[in-house]
Amino acid sequence: MRNPINIGALASGGGTNLQAIIDNCEAGVIDGRVAVVISDREGSGSLERARKHGIPAVHAHVPKTGTPEWVQANRQITRVLRDHEVDLVCMAGYMRKISPDLLAAFPGAIMNIHPALLPSFPGTHGQADAHAYGVKVAGLTVHFADAEFDQGPIIIQAAVPVLDTDEEDTLVARILGLEHQAYSQAIQWFAQGRLQISGRRVIVDGVPTATDATLVWPPVELG
Amino acid sequence: MRNPINIGALASGGGTNLQAIIDNCEAGVIDGRVAVVISDREGSGSLERARKHGIPAVHAHVPKTGTPEWVQANRQITRVLRDHEVDLVCMAGYMRKISPDLLAAFPGAIMNIHPALLPSFPGTHGQADAHAYGVKVAGLTVHFADAEFDQGPIIIQAAVPVLDTDEEDTLVARILGLEHQAYSQAIQWFAQGRLQISGRRVIVDGVPTATDATLVWPPVELG
Question: Which candidate in B114, B125, B131, B143 is catalytic?
Answer without folding.
Answer: B114
